[in-house]
From TrEMBL:
PANTHER family: GH3 DOMAIN-CONTAINING PROTEIN (PTHR31901), JASMONOYL--L-AMINO ACID SYNTHETASE JAR1 (PTHR31901:SF5). Coiled coil: none annotated. One of its GO terms (cellular component) is cytoplasm. Belongs to the IAA-amido conjugating enzyme family. Residues 448-561 form the GH3 C-terminal domain. Transmembrane segments: none annotated. It comes from the Eukaryota. This is Putative indole-3-acetic acid-amido synthetase GH3.5. The gene is GH3.5. InterPro entries: GH3 (IPR004993), GH3_C (IPR055378), GH3_M (IPR055377).
Length: 585
């Protein structure tokens, strides 16, 4: 029998999940029926000729596949205050902002109470399975969560990040209490306008409640790593605050000072314990279990672009298991991690068939140059989408979602692989974003290809006791022919011959046939490595935060386009050294 807590039964949640997934095809039909019935008066669906029909065949015949670009004008009308049922029958209650790290500016995405409800369903489902493997007692969570700036649109809707929309809902705190995940920090810290002050206070509150903490969490693995890199620099100041019972002068926002000061009491014994544990650590290995001895696991999104941070996160976590959080986006949720004992690299996400209507476009093999290099030809040859229960194990697909918040047959842009099935619903592994990020000629390199190249360079640098702290890329077309630029921020100084070898290693690590062939015939110029000053990626992060983003949604952009001028400026103004590959000379 799974542990029961007040107002929450893990047994009941798992029973409901099992019932939902036993006949996923039927649940999908019912879900689409409900979406179309609730939104049958929506202008968008009316204009497409659906005329109130709610069967899958009519839906697919009338409603085209779309990207955000095709919906922008509709969403903008909603944001500007048009009260007509444009995308949904019921009014959109607020606007979510995507992270904006890919295109340099956030997208507007409709948000409503249905998305809050599906978020809580995902949270409870994955927790029920986690709690079966790692039972928790009543306690707290050290959560590095942050709201973003909020503003009112022309029509009076609140616009903020999807995570902030969730955090400010009444359901969020009730659910966190149900699943033993109440944050150590008061709301004033979570909703602070200053990320740096919030982070310091999260660390301090976590230490104050160190014996009660059972989970260490943030939305993304990057945010946890950033928190503990910060801890390395401020731990003595935190100890002083706890010893004296007085909050650091670096916390200047009155509401935060008041809220955190209420938790602080002079505690020399705790301060000495923390101090002695810290000085006893070797290069901060195992700092999390050392300071939070009752923590059961570290939890956050650790797949896709978060995988490069896993080595550092494992260093901080020591013997504690890392557990990848669930799969979703600003546009909506897709699946829950119901296999918490698997390492993040093997994580899959089981689709909940009642939180949206899902379709999948079968993808060609990567070797199909036409599919990879020409949007026009790719669209001409694109296979028809298939249903949730029709996907095949081992195959890759582009995922299409239809949500309760007014997105119909929406191309999310993610490529997933089917790892297996739970009952009749698929378990998906996130593979990559569909869009190419590095291409000049007939070359085709994705975010995953870049990550693999970085991993090869990291092995070379590890032999010199150096690590890559973060990275990004750029296609430089100012040369003729163009070339790839890789930006690296390193943990220390490296000898020039090491960096030169690293540059060659990166160039050779791109094994795509189009790239290799183009390099050999000089159709692509030698790859360039630009080594950055320490703290450059913090400056980029601060730039996004000043645009109104939240640390909870921040992801380092893995390719910086020419249109993203400010980030390129930050990168290029912080270059220490530059090297060109001699790999194909």
């Amino acid at each position: 029998m799974l542990e029961k807590v007040k107002g929450f039964s893990a047994d009941r949640v798992i029973e409901e999940f099992e019932a939902l997934t036993k006949d996923a095809e039927r649940v999908q039909r019912e879900t689409l029926f409900r979406i179309l019935h609730d939104n049958r008066e929506a202008e968008y669906l009316q204009n497409l000729g659906l005329r109130g029909r709610i069967d899958p065949h009519s839906f697919k015949s009338c409603v085209p596949l779309v990207t955000h670009k095709e919906l922008e004008t509709y969403i903008q009308r909603i944001a500007d205050g048009d009260s007509y049922p444009i995308l949904t029958g019921k009014p959109i209650t607020s606007i979510s902002l995507s992270s904006g790290t890919t295109q340099g500016k956030p997208k507007f995405v409709p948000f409503n109470d249905e998305l809050v409800h599906s978020t809580m369903q995902i949270y409870k489902t994955s927790f029920a399975f986690r709690n079966r493997a790692y039972p928790l007692r009543s306690g707290k969570a050290l959560q590095f969560i942050y709201s973003s700036k909020q503003f009112k649109t022309k029509g009076g809707l609140t616009a903020t990040t999807a995570t902030t929309n969730v955090y400010r809902s009444e359901q969020f705190k009730r659910t966190m209490m149900d699943i033993h995940s109440l944050c150590c920090s008061p709301d004033e810290v979570i909703f602070s306008p200053d990320f740096h002050q919030s982070l310091y206070c999260h660390l301090l509150c976590g230490l104050i409640f160190s014996e009660e903490v059972q989970i260490v969490f943030s939305t993304f693995a990057h945010s946890i790593v950033h928190a503990f890199r910060t801890f390395e620099n401020v731990w003595e100041e935190l100890c002083f605050d706890i010893k004296e019972g007085v909050l650091s002068s670096r916390i200047m926002i009155p509401t935060i000072r008041a809220a955190v000061s209420r938790l602080l009491r002079p505690n020399p014994q705790l301060a000495d314990t923390i101090y002695n544990k810290c000085v006893g650590l070797s290069s901060w290995y195992g700092v999390i279990p050392a300071l939070w001895p009752n923590a059961k696991y570290v939890y956050g999104i650790m797949t896709g672009s978060m995988e490069p941070y896993l080595n550092k996160l494992r260093h901080y976590a020591g013997s504690l298991p890392l557990m990848s959080a669930d799969y979703g986006s600003s546009e909506g949720w897709i699946g829950a991690n119901i296999d918490p004992e698997l390492p993040p690299e093997s994580a899959s996400f089981t689709v909940l068939p009642n939180i949206g209507y899902f379709e999948f476009i079968p993808l060609k093999e990567k070797g199909d140059l036409m599919e990879q290099n020409s949007d026009l030809l790719s669209n001409q040859r694109e296979q028809e989408p298939i249903g949730l229960t029709e996907v095949k194990v081992g195959e890759e697909y582009e995922i299409i979602i239809t949500s309760f918040a007014g997105l119909y047959r929406y191309r999310l842009g993610d490529v997933v692989r089917v790892a297996g099935f739970h009952n009749s619903t698929p378990k998906l592994q996130f593979i990559r974003r569909k869009s190419l990020i590095l291409t000049i000629n007939i070359d085709k390199n994705t975010e995953k290809d870049l990550q693999l190249a970085i991993e090869e360079a990291d092995k070379l640098l590890a032999a010199e006791k150096l690590e890559i702290l973060d990275y990004t890329s750029h296609v430089d077309m100012s040369t003729d022919p163009g070339h790839y630029v890789i930006f690296l921020e390193l943990s220390g100084e490296a000898r020039e011959e090491v960096l030169s070898s690293c540059c060659d290693c990166l160039d050779l690590a791109f094994v795509d046939a189009g790239y290799v062939g183009s390099r050999k015939v000089r159709a692509i110029s030698p790859l360039e490595l630009r080594v950055l000053k320490r703290g450059t990626f913090h400056k980029i992060m601060d730039h996004y935060l000043t645009l109104g983003g939240a640390m909870s949604q921040y992801k380092t952009p893995r390719c910086v386009a020419l249109s993203n001028g400010k980030v390129l400026q930050i990168l290029n103004s912080n270059v220490l050294k530059s090297f060109f590959s001699a790999a194909y000379n």
